[in-house]
Design goal:
The structure holds two protein chains of two kinds. By secondary structure, chain A is α+β, with helices and mostly antiparallel strands. Chain A is built from 16 helices and 17 strands. The longest helix of chain A is centred in the C-terminal third of the chain and has 24 residues. Chain A starts with a helix and ends with a strand. Chain B contains four helices and eleven strands; from the N terminus they run ααβαβββββαβββββ. Chains A and B meet through helix 3, strand 3, helix 7, helix 11 and helix 12 of A and helix 1, strand 1, strand 2, strand 3 and strand 5 of B.
């Protein structure tokens, strides 16, 4: 204990010396907090503590400040990580702390969620527990379990959320939320690359020696991959954009899903090449992780809470032009990388004229209809015709939000329009003819043939045999509640998926311990087969855990247990 | 099987025709460069499968329309506005407020208050301002002001316009707290002293009490109407 405490104090001393002008991080030991509250602090106590961190509420909970007792190993790690990302912010972005103004960063350690998934329980399990919070103008904290603290990119990710919270405060929903996540991912991976490169004084010396350094890890497995976002259910191009509801189950509009698009653009900008999955589109000239991060970070500095992907492109472009100049390699690479993932075209900022003078504002009053969509104010300075040579034929703006210099008319007119209407007519005629040809086919046959599981090697049985036979019943009990599984759905490739997500599961189990897509049930021949869809908490069949992604037969009388919580029994 | 293919092909062809009908331009990468590749994908692509064969939910390839409308007005506008040499951030914000009031964008009871300087990006200084109405902050107001060579050149963000609110609450913070608490599964606390704020979204404006709370999954603001004692909105502020 004494040795640990000594190490902690020495590290704290070093940290203080290294950042003499910065406040020492606030270290909060959650286990100690739990002990003081008889092992189960209420949520009210917890949130009052968070408010107390900002100095707004005084009370006995403040006694925990700067106490370095408790789990020394975690505390050492927390101090070390804190010092490292303060250092990274200074060296890579020239910032004094996460807000640029020396903000004290509060760290919470030993904060583990219980093995049963209940929040706020002082469990022993090391599970993924990391979040960053901004409240008011002062409060910020990260909460890490011991295990996640070892994942440098996750620590960097959360630290960057704090930066975003103190600057643009990107709304945590839809595209602005996905940007929030993607920007944090970018800093996270470069932070790790910088550490793995030996923390060079010049961040341009970062060496990325492994593709694994483009991943964000969860405990024991990759969580996101900037090279192949599809490997983790993330889109990598706007034509895969996932539209989800703004609910917890909908991932607040897909903030952790659609960040994959921005992430792949970031990877291409840093490392270069063509879109990895498509293998087509512009070939990006990689500019390295540090310069890519500089553009991302400067673009983030220009954003506001409602910035979406298209706005972000405008910000990134302005940042690149400001940092590297018109017509630079970096600007060209950025344009190519954003084009490669299909983020909508935005004209580059115009080069400033040498004798430009501000003009009087226009007299036109703005539109102030409160119900109308975003108002457009025409630019009051005519853009000076000094176009950047990168993009010569801009597309029109379908969205009125951004009032950047207006693009020129697209070339598609006259001959193109005529060609288009010919094409439309041709397609309609051909489509109609094919539909008419297919109309005499009994649909039942189509369904049965199309529904055969792709991985089922057996030949489908003759249609007549299937139709004449009475359909078997597939009854199960979910925690005692009766449910009949639909045969036709179970014969499809995806089968019937049980999970927490309303968007991705056929049968929703509202339990936080259940993964979004937890279990698949398929019908092959007369047998039910179940597959654990790489769920976090696993599936147990009659007391034996089953291997992930390995179909296993589910017989009458067998019992499946999902996440040690939900029991599925096959009754017939 | 043949007829299945016919059915699919027919559907695809008609879908393609519909796409071309509603697509504003016939774009061609070889003509326009890849910049146009994202300018509008077919809405009929909604059921395309993702790379791993997972059935994809609804997709889109353009602006996220559900992210809008935002506030009462979102704008990016060129200003430009000369600033006095050596003026403080407060003075600059006041000049900007005056200009916006002259343009009719802000009412007499509105003002922009400097939040902080976000630093410089190249030759551009980035400042952030927050809108106040009758002395109360507008919820989540955070506008970016770009300044170059002592000239304000751009304002970017959501500006709440046409505000005309009675800023005296008829619902106490204690009553609102009860309402907020009853609407969520966790306890909430008010972020005093700025618990009373103006909320503007999609043309609707309300005087609200703002509470914050959460669990280990997400942190959430709960906004309660300070006149009607109803939950106006729950806003996720961050999640694992």
């Amino acid at each position: 204990m004494l040795v640990r405490l000594t190490i902690v104090l020495v590290l704290l001393g070093i940290s203080s010396l290294s950042f003499a002008n910065q406040p020492v991080a606030h270290i909060f030991d959650y286990q100690r907090f739990c002990a003081q509250h008889k092992n189960r602090p209420s949520q009210d106590q917890w949130w009052r503590y968070l408010v107390a961190l900002s100095g707004r509420v005084d009370g006995d909970i403040l006694v925990y400040q700067n106490r370095l007792e408790g789990n020394g190993e975690s505390l050492v790690m927390a101090i070390s990580q804190n010092a490292q990302y303060y250092d990274a912010f200074r060296r890579m972005m020239g910032m004094d702390g996460v807000d640029g103004r020396g903000l004290r960063h509060n760290l919470l350690v030993n904060m583990n969620r219980g093995s049963n998934g209940e929040p706020f329980e002082c469990g022993d399990g090391d599970v993924f527990d990391a979040m960053s919070v901004r409240q008011g103008d002062e409060l910020s904290f990260d909460a890490f379990s011991k295990t996640t603290m070892a994942l440098e990119e996750v620590v960097g990710h959360e630290a960057y959320h704090a930066f975003i919270g103190y600057n643009s405060a990107l709304e945590y929903e839809f595209q602005s939320g996905a940007l929030n996540e993607a920007l944090a991912d970018a800093f996270g991976v470069v932070f790790r690359q910088w550490l793995e490169s030996g923390r060079p004084n010049n961040p341009a010396d970062i060496q990325v020696r492994s593709d694994a350094l483009w991943q964000l890890r969860d405990v024991g497995q990759p969580l996101r991959d900037m090279i192949s976002p599809n490997n983790h259910d993330q889109p990598d191009h706007m034509n895969q954009y996932i539209k989800l509801p703004n609910t917890p189950d909908g991932d607040w509009g897909g903030v952790h899903y659609n960040s994959g698009i921005i992430n792949h653009a970031f990877y291409l900008l840093a490392e270069g090449g063509q879109h990895r999955r498509l293998g087509s589109g512009p070939s990006v000239n990689g500019i390295g992780p540090y310069r890519a991060l500089s553009i991302w970070h400067s673009g983030a500095t220009l954003m506001h809470p409602y910035t979406d992907f298209r706005d972000a492109r405008e910000k990134f472009q302005l940042a690149a032009v400001e940092l590297f100049g018109h017509g630079s390699t970096e600007v060209q690479s950025l344009v190519d990388a954003l084009d490669a993932v299909g983020i909508q075209f935005v004209p580059l900022p115009q080069a400033p004229a040498s004798n430009s003078q501000p003009t009087e504002p226009a007299e036109t009053p703005p539109v102030v209809d409160p119900v109308a969509d975003p108002v457009v104010v025409p630019p009051q300075n005519d853009p000076i015709p000094a176009p950047d040579p990168v993009v010569t034929t801009p597309t029109p703006h379908p969205d009125p939000v951004v009032n950047a210099p207006q693009p020129t008319e697209p070339v598609a007119s006259g001959e193109s329009n005529s060609r288009r209407w010919w094409l439309i007519g041709l397609l309609l005629a051909a489509g109609g003819a094919l539909l008419w040809l297919s109309r005499r086919q009994p649909f039942a046959e189509v369904t049965n043939q199309a529904a055969s599981p792709a991985w089922n090697g057996s030949e489908p049985k003759p249609l007549r045999e299937r139709v004449n036979r009475s359909a078997p019943s597939y009854k199960i009990h979910i925690d005692g509640a009766k449910l009949y599984l639909e045969e036709s759905l179970m014969r499809t490739k995806d089968g019937q998926v049980f999970g927490r997500s309303q968007s991705f599961s056929h049968i929703v189990i509202a339990n936080t311990a259940i993964s979004r897509r937890h279990l698949r049930v398929c019908l092959i021949g007369e047998d039910l087969w179940v597959t654990d869809l790489n769920s976090q908490a696993g599936v147990v069949l009659n007391g034996q855990a089953i291997a992930e992604m390995q179909p296993i037969r589910w017989q009458v009388g067998d019992t499946l247990t999902l996440a040690n919580r939900v029991k599925l029994e096959r009754k017939s | 099987m043949k007829r299945v293919i016919q059915l699919l092909m027919g559907t695809l062809l008609i879908a393609g025709a519909l796409y071309l009908t509603f697509e504003p331009t016939l774009t061609d990468d070889s003509e326009q460069g890849s910049a146009s590749s994202s300018s509008g994908a077919p809405s009929t692509d909604a059921n395309a499968a993702s790379g791993d064969g997972t059935p994809a939910p609804e997709r889109e390839n353009s602006e996220n329309s559900t992210n809008q409308p935002i506030g009462s007005t979102q704008t990016t506008t060129q200003i430009p506005l000369d600033l006095p040499a050596g003026g403080s951030a407060e003075e600059n914000a006041a000049i900007l407020t005056g200009w916006l009031q002259e343009q009719g964008w802000l009412g007499e009871q509105d003002e922009l208050v400097e939040l902080f300087n976000s630093g410089a990006v190249g030759s551009v200084e980035v400042e952030r301002v927050r809108q106040f109405h009758n002395g109360l902050p507008v919820y989540d107001s955070n506008l970016v002001v770009l300044r170059r060579d002592n000239v304000l050149v751009e304002l970017d963000g959501a500006l709440a316009v046409d505000l005309n609110l009675d800023v005296e609450p008829t619902v106490s913070i204690e009553e609102a707290w009860e309402t907020a608490n009853a609407s969520v599964s966790f306890n909430v606390v008010a972020a005093v002293p700025e618990a009373l704020q103006v909320h503007a979204r999609a043309g609707e404006t309300q005087l609200v009490w703002v509470f914050s709370g959460g669990d280990m999954r997400a942190r959430t603001d709960v906004l309660v109407d300070a006149h009607r004692n109803e939950v106006v909105r729950k806003v996720t502020k961050g999640a694992i």
